Amino acid sequence: MVVIPFENTSPTPGLEWLSEAFPEAFHEQLNSPVLYVASRDERLRGYDRQGIPANLHPSRATLYRVAEQMDVDYAVLGSYSYDGAHLTAAAQLLDMRAQRLLPAATESGSLTDLGNLQSALVWDLLRLIRTDFSLSKEKYVASVSSERLDALENYIRGMLASSADEKAEYYKEAVRLNPAYHEAWLELGKAYFAEHTYEPAINALGQVPASSALAREANFYLGLAALNHGDFARAENAFEFVAARLPLAEVYNNLGVVATRRGRKNSAEYFEKAIRNDPSDPDYHFNLGVTLSVAGDRSGAARELRAALERRPNDLEAKALLDSVTPSATGVVPAAAIAKAPAQRIKHNYDENTFRQMTMQIQSWAEQQFARSDPRSHARYHVELGRELLAHGFTAEAESEFNHAAMVDSASTAPLTGLAEVSVARGDTREARNRAEASLRLRESADAYIVLAGLDLSENRGEAAAQNVNRAMQLEPGNLAAQNLKRAIAAKLAEKAP
Predict the structure, then answer these.
(1) C-alpha radius of gyration, the chain, whole number
(2) Do residues 249 and 277 lie in contact, with contact meaning Cβ atoms separated by under 8 Å?
(3) CA 88, CA 79: separation in Å to the nearest integer?
(4) Where does residue 190 fall: left (phi above 0), alpha (psi -120 to 50 degrees), or beta otherwise?
(5) CA distance 371 to 319
(6) Are 91 and 30 a contacting pair, CB within 8 Å?
(7) How far apart are CA 288 and CA 228, in angstroms?
(8) What is the H or E stretch that residue 483 is in?
(9) Domains of the chain by start residue, with CATH
């Protein structure tokens, strides 16, 4: 899906920023493992390919060409107006597969209630896209947390600003108004990084918690800022955080550069991983060629440098280094060649979107396969995928998988237990307990008792924790998680015994 900036039909000045606020809200709420919503950068690239200025509201015919060129299934078109008392917004779904524009959905409310109005519009569209979407509008709107209006305005104005300085001022105001505004912290850090002010960039990007869906991107730029600032240990930690959750070639490449700067012997392994992920990029071959040349492996270095030149024939650095490692038949790399080894190349692009599109295509294929299977197997697939996503820090994506599993097989307890684990990861202990107890009301399971035992232990309720972990072990005596938790509980109780 691509969401086009809404058209401002209001005579009231100062509300032009709302045009971009709607795509942001729709992206945040609709983007999921089952529906890929194009980012603003992707939309702007689509505009650029059609020769459309970023701030122009194109005709419907032009928007149809943009959506066609972007190869999307849906495009969302909309408009808004404000009469001084009420904000009215309309959204229409352009179904590219059926080649028809569906009737407009309209919502109205006060300007200060913008978040709820946007969520109501999202619900209207969800009902058109997913015929099985059964959650009521009231419950859906209540489930979405809205950003305060003044912080949101500064965030959007920062997004639309043309200079890094101006962007930073708006984002600073947004985080002053809401210190927990993770999107604004990320963009503030990126604005500082663009200005080569690395210490403020590190501080801003460090404000994005590990539990946030933005943590991977924040840590990528944190790694770049720390690398440029000379803090190689912090850069390594940041890139390792991303690599553990997302196997991106650019992250492995940068870990290889950091390993070289730290004098580590394993930099070649990282460059080899980057090449396996993306063999078409000449920089990964070049970096491995530099590493091998310094290590004295002339033939390996020559092989990688030739691969780099095949992909980028005008690379003068690669050509010079290749000449230096292939002189005559001596068995050692000349000291002069080692001394002249060029610096390895850092990757500044972070492309999670391409990876997500690929995984979504895989999931779409899996859905087609499981559509012909029984509900229990179908739900089990989504539960297992949810647990894998949760283990790698994808809490929002994991929650979506567990919700999908619950919808496929409402008699299964595993999705509710998975949702309880998502709540634990988010630090919402009350919701985690409610979900685990709801799972037990359906049927007893070791996993649900383990969640409750862990919550009890964190709240210093040792006896209750011991009872719940014992119930888990009665159901599954060999459960390793229960055994480990039982030992932790026993140690806690032993501390209190004296």
Answers:
(1) 26
(2) yes
(3) 8
(4) alpha
(5) 54
(6) no
(7) 21
(8) helix 480-496
(9) 2-146 (3.40.50.10610), 147-248 (1.25.40.10), 249-348 (1.25.40.10), 352-496 (1.25.40.10)
Exposed/middle/buried for 374, CB within 10 Å: 0-12, 13-18, 19+? exposed
Q: 155: closest CA among 106, 214, 92?
A: 214
| Cα 477 from Cα 494, distance rounded (Å) | 23
Contact call for residues 232 and 262 (beta carbons, < 8 A): yes
**What's the mean per-residue pLDDT of the chain?**
88
Separation between Cα atoms, residue 216 and residue 278, nearest integer Å: 19
CA distance 243 to 66: 34
The position carrying tokens 């209207």 is: 124
Q: Which residues contact 129 (CB under 8 A, 6 or more apart)?
A: 35, 74, 93
Provide the whole-model pTM.
0.73
Tokens of 390: 């949760």
β-bridge partners, 35: 32
What are 85-96's pLDDT values in tens digits? 899 999 999 999
- pLDDT confidence bin for 133, thresholds 50/70/90: confident
For the chain, how are helix, strand and coil distributed in percent, rounded to 5?
65, 5, 30
Distance CA 184, CA 490 (A): 44
pLDDT for the residue numbered 259: 95
Give 409-469 as a DSSP string. Answer: -TT-SHHHHHHHHHHHHHT-HHHHHHHHHHHHHH---HHHHHHHHHHHHHTT-HHHHHHHH
Q: Which residue has the tokens 């200079």?
A: 163
**The length of the chain, given as a count of residues:** 498
